[in-house]
Design goal:
Helices cover about 40% and strands about 20% of the residues. The chain is built from 8 helices and 6 strands.
């Protein structure tokens, strides 16, 4: 089986996990990025304040998403792009929490999705002073990207997984999960408790 997955990253408007304002995704087939997607999201009412500290991080303002579709309108397109793949994210508990909270705020059932955390994989693969995405990505040979641009971050995350798989001699995501001691988890009905950002 090849190394197939979709890397994903969200940026949020404020401290609410339901305030996703952009998403970036990178589809990997056999260890190579074959497709990408990026779009802005208008957070649902009650979660749509853009805090200055968040805007400073990612540069997205309320005016930028004024004409963007709501999460409820965009979820089908997101799931279509993922197409049943296992997701990969850096500090995946945060990004999976965004999906769950955005669905809850939009009165939608949360989809069932398997996911692997590239932060956990990086900690078992590299010896670094920090395992933040830019540092771990640099260890994987992915440098000089626009951190906190959701698409750039998803590509960095994908690069970490592909490089780590080579380091561990893993040819599939399941083999990498086992070699790195980083479990593939599931978002959805079988998730007993929500994860929070670490």
């Amino acid at each position: 089986m090849p190394l197939d997955f979709t890397a994903i990253d969200f940026e949020t408007a404020n401290g609410s996990a339901a305030s996703a304002c952009s998403v970036g995704m990178a589809k990997v087939r056999d260890g190579r990025v074959v497709d990408t997607a990026y779009w802005l999201i208008r957070p649902p009412l009650g979660h749509d304040d853009f805090l200055e500290c968040n805007v400073r991080i990612h540069g997205i303002m309320a005016v930028d998403v004024a004409d963007a579709a709501l999460w409820s309108e965009q979820l089908p397109g997101l799931l279509s792009f993922v197409s049943g793949d296992t997701l990969v994210a850096h500090n995946a508990g945060f990004d999976m929490g965004v999906i769950a909270a955005s669905c809850a705020a939009s009165y939608l059932p949360s989809p069932t999705l398997d996911y692997l955390c590239s932060l956990q994989v990086a900690r078992k693969t590299y010896h670094l002073n920090s395992y933040r995405l830019p540092v771990a990505a640099m260890a994987a040979g992915f440098e000089d990207f626009e951190h906190h641009n959701a698409l750039a971050d998803s590509l960095a995350c994908a690069a970490i997984i592909v490089h780590a798989a080579a380091r561990h001699g893993a040819s599939t995501l399941e083999e990498l999960s086992a070699a790195a001691g980083a479990p593939i988890k599931r978002l959805g009905a079988s998730l007993s408790s929500a994860e929070t950002p670490g």
